[in-house]
Amino acid sequence: xxxxxxxxxxxxxxxxxYIERLFSIEREIMVLREDKKELAEEFKGKVDKKLVAGVxxxxxxxxxxxxxxxxIDEVSELVRSKLDAMDLK
Length: 89
Hints:
The protein is 82% helix and 0% strand. By secondary structure, the chain is mainly alpha-helical.
């Protein structure tokens, strides 16, 4: 009896639509990855990509924090002063 219920809940048309959309998205992701590689190649030697990526990561992380920008700045200065004292730069 369980097999009958499972078969009735299976919608072949919905499954086909899902697979079509899924593969369409996968193709778009592949194109975007290729575009990203081409962009990196175009700006190779002109832009410090590690710096840009680091700043983007930092700002994304900062946006997720539940603190004011003033608090973040104050804590950043405390950490920066400790890093300076350790001469890690």
